[in-house]
Amino acid sequence: MELIRFTYISLILFTISYPLFKSFEDKIRYASKWKYLFPGIIGSAIFFIVWDVLFTKMGIWEFNPDYILGIHIIHLPLEEWLFFIVVPFSCVFIYEVMNYFVKKDILQHYHKWITIALILFLLTTAIMNSHKLYTFFTFIFLSVFLLIHLLIFRSTYMGRFYLTWLVCMIPFLLVNGVLTAMPVVIYNNAHNLGIRIYTIPFEDVFYGMLNILQVVTIYEWLKNKKAA
Asked: Would you say 75 and 83 are in contact if contact means Cβ atoms under 8 Å apart?
């Protein structure tokens, strides 16, 4: 097997290596919180894998066989299944690190306005691009979920989530940049806005945000339930 086929799995291992190694550190004690984390990861993974399978079958994106191991489960490469475990695991690790070292909720007084602005932007863009399925469904799903947080959950941790997501953009641009530059993942541009951050479709930012917010939502709910 050519070494190039290990590209995607190598990115997966690279992404999880440091968070997994530091999970047992005394300060963050991330490993002790896995019982709250993995239900969120599994719940979100089910949603995204169904979405991923449907979009792959519809030709909205595909995976370059040159850069994957060739092991497929329900039309998706093994690496893609691992992606929805490893990326949330690593991002929630960053969330915990940020909560530990940044004691003040910097965006506490602004997170509602950020949420409202995001909802308006996402809904408007989705409606104007209803024929572009990646754009439409990503923006609709995220805007609805943000609206639920704003009106029903009234989540107090959204400021911390937004700050964490800004930090997560650094490894996101690195890993996703490789995935889209080689490319490991090939997008059908008829179904996205055609706006790229380097080689990364603009929609990926919000696709990732929805994934991580789903996990954090369940994670925080289980932690608060235990504390209560």
From this structure: no
Distance between start and end Cα atoms, the chain? 52
Helix, strand, coil shares of the chain, percent, nearest 5, are: 75, 5, 20
Domain limits of the chain?
A: 3-227
C-beta separation of 90 from 19 below 8 A: yes
Contact 134, 201 (CB under 8 A): yes
Q: Is a pLDDT exceeding 60 seen at residue 28?
A: yes
Q: How far lies 155's CA from each of 39, 41, 152, 204, in Å? A: 19, 19, 8, 24
| pTM tops 0.70 | yes
Which residue, chain included where needed, has tokens 């929630």?
92
Q: Report residue 205 as tokens.
A: 């930012």
The span from the CA of 151 to the CA of 130, in Å, is 25
Beta strand ranges found along the chain (DSSP E): 61-63, 72-73, 76-77, 185-187, 196-197, 200-201
- pLDDT confidence of residue 198: 92
**What are φ and ψ of residue 183, in 5° steps?**
-95, 145
Q: Enter the tokens of residue 157.
A: 């941790």
CB–CB of 83/12 below 8 Å? yes
Peptide bond into 88 cis (omega under 30): no
